[in-house]
Amino acid sequence: MVRLLLSGDRPQSVLLGALLLTILVCLAFAPFLFPGTRSLETAARICIFIVLVASYDLLLGYAGIVSFAHTMFFGMGAYGVAIATQRMGTGYDALAVGTAAGAGLAAVFAFLIALFSLRVRAIFFAMITLAVASAVAVLVSQLSAITGGEDGMNIRIPRELTPAFRPFDGPVLGLNVNGRVLNYYLVFVSCLVLFLLMLRIVNSPFGRVLQAIRENAFRAEAIGYRVVFYRAAATVISAVVASLAGAIFAIWLRYVGPATTLGVEIMLDILLIVVIGGMGTMYGAVVGTAAFVLAQNYLRDWMGGASEATSFLPLVPDLLNPDRWLMWLGILFILSVYFFPTGMVGRLRGVR
Amino acid sequence: MTGPSLETRDLTVRFGGHVAVDHVSAAFHPGELTAIVGPNGAGKTTWFNLISGQIPASGGKVLLKGEDITRLSVAARTDRGIGRAFQLTNLFPKLTVLENVRLVIQARARRGFNMWTVAMGHRDMIEAAERILERVRLQHLANQPVNTLPHGDQRKLEVATLIAMQPEVFMFDEPTAGLSLDEAPVILELIAEIKRDPGATVLLVEHKMDVIRSLADRIIVLHNGALVADGPPAEVMASAVVKEAYLGGELEDV
């Protein structure tokens, strides 16, 4: 059963398996294990970014295609939901229509970009994606009548998914279950399904062709695979999954804006996480995202604590000042790339 | 005999002002092994590239069983029965030996766009790949990444992938280049085995005269991009034009 769900892609390391299981359990029971708004926000963000990063890994790590338009597809899903709820009113039908419209738009854009640029050099594709993504980001911030411009849009979601909704009279397992918790489980289950789906795709005959193309495109063509079609298909799949992650993100946040979905920072985060986690291993997206999002959200707190604890020493408290968190994140990144060139997953599989 | 399996008609390619392959016409029949010889730069590999589609032709036609394939992509030609082994070893270096063969079988089975099943769940493809590895005696290395293999074994694997393609036309471009004296016979034995199949058309670019003598039914000589001789080995080797083309002792009479 587990084998079937994981598509035969075993973690190949006891340590990695244990780590993945821990992350799964923590995310599955997050509302009960870590009560509080902020930790639930973090858990939901981890779920969504696992899917977003894994969909990027499908493109970069498996097919060997460099794209800078991944946040654009992420944004299409998020804006699809926002615009649909604004036009159609609050309701599940609006969420479904918005998600489908965002995914459809992402598929069309991905297909066109792939068709026009994947036939030629890889660097050309990367540049086209960068240009299209920047153009779309500018368009979104300018067309304020449709997209809300720089301010973004608030999204009204059905009451069952908001904190105001209380399905049970008393607490369940010591937790007052409200609509927010239900919303979290919507996020968790959708992300789990999407992740397992991608795990299946990369281990399918199609996924094997992608890896072959990454290794030697000339050879892949010579043994009978039309490389351009496979690359286009990978681009479309990756874009659609990213847009679905965007839709889930919008429903969870109840807000969408250029900075939260289309920003260059998010694209950089995705790239960093793929490298830290380990390219070409779906599990890298899981451990990389968990480590990165936790560091991003809690590094400042930990540093504040460490700074106070070391206040009797010279210089050290200043270095550990929470304002320096970005520097430490940078140092952690450099160290991880230096010591784990194959990512966390590669490293963990290496030790057995 | 039925019509030719492969034919090139006035096949030409120009790079700028240089004519690398100059109106070459030849027809090949099943059950025949043709050796293609000529000095370096004669256009042998370029002619191969035009046939298998890596380079588009400037003029002329390539016909496979009478069908014009001149404008088709490399993958489409492979799908129709053109199989090619390259001069420089050309494999998937980080994938395993088995996977290199399995991918060829998967391409033939047209399962490349199957996204819903687990690749390693298709026992039939794995078993077919294992059978071919046994044939070239590489089964003990099935799970090794290709880049850990010695050069001789990589050449063997390249032949194995060609066998896995089950093509109509087998094209070998100097299959024994860079091999030691005890490695080359294994490859040549495999080519001889392929030749015994009456349905196989074999094209072989080769420099070594002993290889040509033992395997070839026919020799084609290219010189400066043009076909200068075509006929049975004894006849071609005796002709004056060949001796002229090879002035400088290109043929390695080992």
Summarize model confidence as the mean pLDDT of chain B.
90
Question: CATH architecture of the largest domain in chain B, please?
Answer: 3-Layer(aba) Sandwich
Give the helix/strand class of chain B.
Answer: alpha/beta
Oligomer: heterodimer
Percentage of residues in helical conformation of chain B: 25-40%
Count helical runs of chain B: 9
Tell me the overall shape of chain A.
Answer: globular
Question: Could you characterize the architecture of this molecule?
Answer:
The complex is a heterodimer of chains A (352) and B (254). Chain A has 352 residues and is mostly helical. Chain A has one domain: ABC transporter involved in vitamin B12 uptake, BtuC (Orthogonal Bundle). Chain A is 74% helix and 1% strand. Chain A contains 18 helices and 2 strands. A two-stranded antiparallel ribbon of chain A has the order 1-2. Chain A is globular. Chain B is α/β, with parallel strands linked by helices. Chain B has 2 domains: 169 residues, P-loop containing nucleotide triphosphate hydrolases (Rossmann fold), CATH 3.40.50; 74 residues, no CATH class. Helices cover 34% and strands 24% of the residues of chain B. Chain B contains 9 helices and 10 strands. A 6-stranded mixed β-sheet of chain B has the order 6-7-8-3-9-10, sandwiched between helices. In chain B, strands 2-1-4-5 form a 4-stranded antiparallel β-sheet, covered by helices on one side. In chain B, a hairpin with a 2-residue loop joins strand 1 and strand 2. The longest helix of chain B has 15 residues. Chain B is globular and about 55 Å long. The relative contact order of chain B is 0.18. The mean pLDDT of chain B is 90. Chains A and B meet through helix 9, helix 10, helix 11 and helix 12 of A and helix 2 and helix 3 of B.
How is the secondary structure organized here?
The complex is a heterodimer of chains A (352) and B (254).
Chain A: H1 2-5, H2 14-28, H3 30-33, H4 37-62, H5 70-88, H6 92-117, H7 122-142, H8 144-147, E1 153-154, H9 179-203, H10 205-215, H11 217-222, H12 227-253, E2 255-256, H13 258-261, H14 264-277, H15 282-309, H16 316-319, H17 325-339, H18 343-351
Antiparallel strand pairs in A: 1-2
Helix pairs in contact in A: 4-9, 4-12, 4-14, 4-15, 5-6, 5-12, 6-12, 9-10, 9-12, 10-12, 14-15, 14-18, 15-18
Chain B: E1 6-15, E2 18-28, E3 33-37, H1 44-52, E4 59-64, E5 67-68, H2 74-80, E6 82-85, H3 97-108, H4 123-135, H5 151-165, E7 169-173, H6 184-195, E8 201-205, H7 209-215, E9 218-223, E10 226-231, H8 233-238, H9 240-245
Parallel strand pairs in B: 3-8, 3-9, 6-7, 7-8
Antiparallel strand pairs in B: 1-2, 1-4, 4-5, 9-10
